[in-house]
Amino acid sequence: MSCFYLCYLCDVMTRLIWLRRILWLGLGLLIIRLAQLQLVEGAMYRDLAEHNRIRVVPQLAPRGLLLDRTGRRLATNVLSFRLAMVPQETPDPSAVFTHLSRLTNTPAAELSRTFTRQRTLPFVPAPVLANLPKIEALRIEEVRGKLPGVLIEPVVTRAYPLGETASHLIGYLGQPSADAFPILKTYGVRPYDLVGRAGLEWHLDQLLHGRSGGELIEVDHRARQRRLLGFRQPVPGESVTLTIDARLQALIERSFGSQAGACVVLNPSTGEVLAMVSRPGFDPNRFAEQDQSAIQRFLDDSGSPLMNRATSGAYLPGSIAKLVTAIAALEHHVIQPESTFECRGALRIGDREFHCWKRDGHGLISLHQAIQQSCNVYFMQVGRRVGLPRLRAEFAQAGFGHRSGWLMDEQPGHLPSGRLTEGEVALLAIGQGQILVTPLQEAVMVSAIANGGRLVTPWVVAEVGGHAIPPPGSRPLEVSRRSLETLRAAMIAVVNDPQGTGFSAHSDRVRIAGKTGTAQTHLPGHTHGWFVGFCPADAPQLAMAIVAEYGGSGGGLPASIAKGICEFDA
Question: Could you tell me if 274 and 447 are in contact, meaning their C-beta atoms sit under 8 angstroms apart?
Fold first, then answer.
């Protein structure tokens, strides 16, 4: 019995020893973990606690204004209200959405989708409704104590007082793309902030954006504000003055009506863009308001209202290309101003017959008359004599086939690079076949004819923050004064002689010089109508290129728009 008792006692002692060892081991591990938390990771956890105690409430800086040349506001800012929710302070979002739905007349499911899409970090308010009417904002504010996590934020939002006017030039706002956000984040941009996504709003975004500010506040365990720790005043973006005239811009846009097309008006001496029109247009306010249904309609519209046809629309030029063909022929002494060719209504090249627009022909016709009446047969014969290499070089020198130097997106157009048949060269000479140009390129080309032979670089930003921006330079067009005078005289006849193809642009108030064009398209019976010109003819102040997309002849709507432009403030 005593032996059994001794064995039992030894077993108990052994277990107590192991238990003590385990306790010492556990205590050691606890001490090591405490040391790690306090000595090694203490700074990290202090930062986490500090961030949990301290909140940053950002305040976006108002975007800089966009003004026209006379100070009219094209883009400004207005105060509005935004409904937001802090994710970690909203334990039951569905109940909150149900309550908010009754207050805002917005489906709870839509509120939930927006919240899910916009939420980022638990502490960061996620926008749920933008541009909240003031009466609804006050209604929510009255019951906000029953809606945990709900915030009513006064925000400065973008507004465009003139609506669609100059919308393609101005551009629009949107949330930053996934690619751009890492860069924009360094400038204080948050994922759901609106930044420039097109036009000048995009190109000048860093100038217009300004510097964001905000409040640094201390909160308690229920996220209620206890005290203000600091504040940084937002710095508004720079105001930018443009060269365009909003009244002229609006006049041209109204003149197009429902017709698709584009127009560029330049100061031919300086390259200032006085108007840049693309139709159809869009209302950039819909983007600033984040009206998703309207934005989707713009994206789905087969008329491509978001495309700037003035710089990105590449068209066959038709007969306006005859001006450059004439320069090539005169400068290479292929013809003289008095040289004549006979037009019988068609020209046979090989086994193919190419028709003039006047099927019974123009008869024996000079260069002056050929430009005035836009004779195809005359210029096809001239183009064949000039030859492809010289013709292509002259088109390139006039600015076709490459960008003009415009500060934003621009199509270079197209010139043929390979060999062409004799018939294809004839078509190229009259602006058909393998050539595409933009309205901006045509405006630059006709400016050179107006200003005495200099290719200007189009520009639109006149001042930033009250400081003038020096205009870009120009380069000479290698063409003689005699050739330019020959062209100008013929272009005056196009508009002011009753036999001219652009006589519908004739004005009793101002003398206009111009050239019409009617370009065939892939749609039989549907042509692009062109008009290029300048005014006053003797001392040009305006140079323009106008295209009506599938809009008939250049002597129709484009010529009448040109007349309205030249009579503007005349």
Answer: no
User: Which residues have C-beta within 8 Å of that of residue 67, sequence separation ≥ 6?
Assistant: 73, 74, 239, 240, 241, 242
Report the candidate in 203, 311, 271, 206 with the shortest Cα–Cα distance to residue 460.
271
What is the pLDDT at residue 60?
Answer: 73
Give the distance, in angstroms, between the CA of residue 545 and the centroid of all CA atoms in the same chain: 20
The secondary structure of 291-305, three-state, reads CHHHHHHHHHCCCCC
Tokens of 427: 């078509």
Q: Environment class of residue 89 by beta-carbon count within 10 Å: exposed (0-12), middle (13-18) or buried (19+)?
A: middle
C-alpha to C-alpha distance for 396 and 386, rounded to whole angstroms: 15
Residue 396 CA to residue 415 CA, distance in Å, equals: 8
User: What is the Cα–Cα distance from 511 to 380, expressed in whole angstroms?
Assistant: 30
CA-closest candidate to residue 322, choices 276, 258, 365, 290? 365
In 219-271, alpha helices (H): 246-256
Cα–Cα distances (Å) from 43 to 31, 52, 242, in that order, read 18, 14, 52
**Token pair recorded at residue 491:** 């272009």
What the chain holds in terms of domains, given with CATH numbers, is: 55-242 (3.90.1310.10), 246-288+314-567 (3.40.710.10)
DSSP 8-state class, residue 351: T
CA distance 17 to 10: 11
| pLDDT < 70: residue spans in the chain | 1-6, 8-9, 11-12, 33-59, 121, 123, 177-192, 214-231, 570
DSSP state of 372: H
- Supply the pTM of this predicted model: 0.83
Residue with tokens 């609506």: 163
196 strand-pairing partners: 173
Q: Please answer whether residues 456 and 444 qualify as being in contact, where contact means their C-beta atoms are separated by less than 8 angstroms.
A: yes
Residue 233: per-residue pLDDT: 76
What is the model's pLDDT at position 536? 98
Q: How far is CA 429 from the centre of its chain?
A: 33
CA distance 226 to 162: 44
Strands 340-343 and 474-476: unpaired
Residue 81 CB burial class (10 angstroms; 0-12, 13-18, ≥19): buried
- For residue 90, the 8-state DSSP code is -
CA gap 365, 394 in Å, rounded: 24
Q: How far is CA 123 from CA 32, 54, 145, 149, in A?
A: 33, 10, 18, 10
